[in-house]
């Protein structure tokens, strides 16, 4: 069956690059979750929209499931191919197609990395402002599929705010040109925004027109040491009121311990429960005044302001290096979101829950406090098997999802639902919403072949 299907695809598209080597199947069939054994049918690497469209049409005619694939840096199993799906990798479609100086847009193929997009925008004296640590390996198509956020959401918002137009292939292989770069367009439903955040279940993004903007004003970076979570919220309110923030990121002492062990350099002496890396438009006098006020209130115990670009990068590494420093510990990850005003009550409740449920495990907190997005990483003890560890964490996540529901939060802030969070979707969405979402899926993908088993 496998040989016949691949022969059929190869005969229809003789120029298509197809990979079937076991090492390629493993590499392209998984994402960063590493929970599922990759088992794709093959890897198709189209070099053009026409070739990608032909692959999707072939899949529709032959009832072959497809998993769209970008950089596979996802953390929810959204790019996993474990049941004989054909992986449709966009990595060869990685070029800039057009720059428009008047519209300030950059049109790119979906396989382009976020770093390459940054570089291309910079060549024109502009920026694409969405940014996060995986910039060198994540693909813009995957960013769109998960509505990626990152470290500067407080200033610029999520990916959704920066997409002017999309070219998408739906489940039948039809090509859709969504919004076409228009600023105003009230001609019916904006299907572009259905595709953004849909995790490849409605269509394959092949091209994107991105909005660009001016580089920010010169900035300063500061690292703060704080005594507790209550102080963290006070400091955020203080800094947001008095400074023009670009980023406000926090992490715990446990996170710092791991990132230091991974090669980062300590910037503040002593041990403190919480830390913040914040970046703001340069105003040293105002920043020092705010810092002193925080010290006087007892909300800040210590701090350092970067005096060079190199020192600023070193301070940012303390936050951005956390995920990589935890990878060898096989962390169980929760990526949650709440209204900022709901954070204090939720945190008091959830910290008690996690302390009770994980008394002998490292629980690493970090995240984007300025937009209500928290990352909770539970590290696997060496004495527990992978299966037993995940089973124990899944039980706790059920309680976490229930608590989030009570506080009006979401079980997924920016990583998507994928495979990992499917059991908890109902904590965030009502039955009526999920039914409508399934209906949308049916329209875009009548046979259910696009990224099957994800989200629902």
TrEMBL record:
One of its GO terms (molecular function) is oxidoreductase activity. Its cofactor is FAD. Keywords: FAD, Flavoprotein, Oxidoreductase. InterPro entries: FAD-bd_oxidored_4_C, FAD-bd_PCMH, FAD-bd_PCMH-like_sf, FAD-bd_PCMH_sub2, FAD-linked_Oxase-like_C, FAD-oxidored/transferase_4, Oxid_FAD_bind_N, Vanillyl_alc_oxidase_C-sub2. GO terms for biological process: respiratory electron transport chain. Residues 36-215 form the FAD-binding PCMH-type domain. Belongs to the FAD-binding oxidoreductase/transferase type 4 family. This is FAD-binding oxidoreductase. The lineage of its organism: Bacteria, Pseudomonadati, Pseudomonadota, Gammaproteobacteria, Lysobacterales.
């Amino acid at each position: 069956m496998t040989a016949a299907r691949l022969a059929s695809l190869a005969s229809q598209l003789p120029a298509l690059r197809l990979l079937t080597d076991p090492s390629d199947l493993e590499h392209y069939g998984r994402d960063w979750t590493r929970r599922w054994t990759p088992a794709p049918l093959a890897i198709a690497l189209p070099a053009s929209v026409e070739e990608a469209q032909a692959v999707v049409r072939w899949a529709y005619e032959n009832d072959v499931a497809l998993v769209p694939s970008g950089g596979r840096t996802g953390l929810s199993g959204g790019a996993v191919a474990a049941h004989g799906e054909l992986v449709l990798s966009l990595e060869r479609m990685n070029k800039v197609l057009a720059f428009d100086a008047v519209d300030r847009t950059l049109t790119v193929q979906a396989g382009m990395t976020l770093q390459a997009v940054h570089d291309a925008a910079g060549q024109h004296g502009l920026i694409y402002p969405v940014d996060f640590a995986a910039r060198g390996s994540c693909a813009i198509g995957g960013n769109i599929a998960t509505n990626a956020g990152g470290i500067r959401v407080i200033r610029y918002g999520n990916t959704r705010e920066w997409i002017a137009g999309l070219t998408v292939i739906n489940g039948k292989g039809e090509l859709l040109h969504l919004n076409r770069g228009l600023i105003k367009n009230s001609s019916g439903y904006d299907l572009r925004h259905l595709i953004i955040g849909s995790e490849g279940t409605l269509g394959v993004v092949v091209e994107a027109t991105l909005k660009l903007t001016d580089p920010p004003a010169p900035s300063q970076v500061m690292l703060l040491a704080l005594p507790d979570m209550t102080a963290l919220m006070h400091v955020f309110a203080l800094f947001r009121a008095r400074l023009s923030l670009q980023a406000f990121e926090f992490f715990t002492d446990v996170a710092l311990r791991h990132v230091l062990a991974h090669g980062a350099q300590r910037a503040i002496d002593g041990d403190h429960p919480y830390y913040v890396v914040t970046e703001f438009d340069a105003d040293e006098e105002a920043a020092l005044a705010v810092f002193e006020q925080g010290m006087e209130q007892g909300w800040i115990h210590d701090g350092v302001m970067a005096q060079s670009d190199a020192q600023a990068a070193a301070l940012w590494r303390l936050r951005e290096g956390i995920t990589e420093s935890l990878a060898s510990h096989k962390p169980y990850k929760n990526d949650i979101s709440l209204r900022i005003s709901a954070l204090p009550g939720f945190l008091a409740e959830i910290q008690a829950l996690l302390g009770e449920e994980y008394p002998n495990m490292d629980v690493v907190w970090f995240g984007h406090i300025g937009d209500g997005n928290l990352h909770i990483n539970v590290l696997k003890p060496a004495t527990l098997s992978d299966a037993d560890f995940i089973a124990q964490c899944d039980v706790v996540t059920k309680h976490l999802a229930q608590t989030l529901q009570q506080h009006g939060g979401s079980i997924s802030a920016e990583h998507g639902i994928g495979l990992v969070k499917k059991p908890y979707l109902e904590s965030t969405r009502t039955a009526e919403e999920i039914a409508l979402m399934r209906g949308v899926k049916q329209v875009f993908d009548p046979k259910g072949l696009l990224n099957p088993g994800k989200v629902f």
